[in-house]
Design brief:
With about 220 residues, this protein is an alpha/beta fold. It has 5 helices and 7 strands. The chain has a single domain, classed as Rossmann fold (3-Layer(aba) Sandwich). Bound molecules: S-adenosylmethionine (SAM).
């Protein structure tokens, strides 16, 4: 395990503290509280989203590939009342059957996965048709001038927070078969400009054509 990753995990909550207090925790709450049913959170980190899950969650599964993060995640799960299953797995290889979840939650993860299109395909695969992805991600700006600034400072972003600030996440969600239903842009609290925009919203795994109106009828035995 790399020393850098261990330091990142050990200092993550502290590093995020200012942003959390300046609005990030509220943004998390707005996204995560909409989770319903069987819920998977990928790249759950130290578990900063845990307090924001609401009563409509039937069961929560958390995945995280990094052992140092995983240890902290497990600890945080044990300290709160909701039960959750914690598993070590990268987003690119989710150890679940197709159509397993009603909701997938992804916050500040798609900027740092190894293979973003593959990770999104995996998220789509494990979501049931009609299921939702709730996301909060910083990504490449659609303003070309700002995107060029992000390209120029990506090395610094990588050095600071071990991810890319210029990934075309919105395009990847759409090109890998998710339908973006809602999306809003804001600034990442207390962060340098190249980290913006921070984008949050909801995408769905489209129901196959024809399946939406299918009603099952059962013959009346009388
Ligand atoms: C910036 S942290 C975000 C943690 C958490 N989601 C949050 O909102 O606080 C990025 C997380 O993504 C995880 N990660 C890195 N590569 C990943 C991958 N391929 N699949 C899933 N998670 C990954 C990291 O270990 C880390 O926990």
């Amino acid at each position: 395990m790399g020393l850098r990753k261990r330091i990142f995990a050990a200092t993550y909550d502290w590093q995020m503290g200012g942003a959390q207090r300046a609005g990030l925790a509220d943004l998390r709450a707005g996204v995560v509280s909409r989770a319903t049913g069987l819920v998977l959170e990928v790249g759950a980190g130290t578990g900063l989203n845990l307090p924001h899950y609401g009563p409509d969650v039937e069961h929560l599964t958390l995945t995280e590939p990094d052992p140092s993060m995983l240890k902290r995640l497990q600890r945080r799960v044990e300290q709160q009342p909701r039960s959750a299953t914690v598993l070590r797995a990268p987003a690119e290889r989710l150890p679940f059957d197709d159509d397993s979840f009603d909701t997938v939650v992804c916050t500040l993860v798609l900027c740092g996965v190894e293979d973003q299109p593959l990770a999104v395909r995996e998220i789509r695969r494990v979501l049931r048709p009609g299921g939702q992805l709730l996301f909060l991600e910083h990504m490449r700006s659609e303003d070309e001038r700002h995107a060029r600034l992000q390209d120029r400072f990506n090395w610094l972003n990588r050095a600071m927070v071990m991810c890319d600030c210029n990934r075309p996440t919105r395009l990847t969600l759409a090109s890998e078969g998710l339908r973006i239903e809602e999306i809003a842009e804001t600034d990442f609290p207390k962060a340098p400009p190249f980290i913006n925009p921070l984008v949050h919203g909801r995408a769905t795994h489209p129901t196959p054509v024809g399946a939406e109106n299918t009603t099952q009828t059962r013959a009346d035995p009388t």
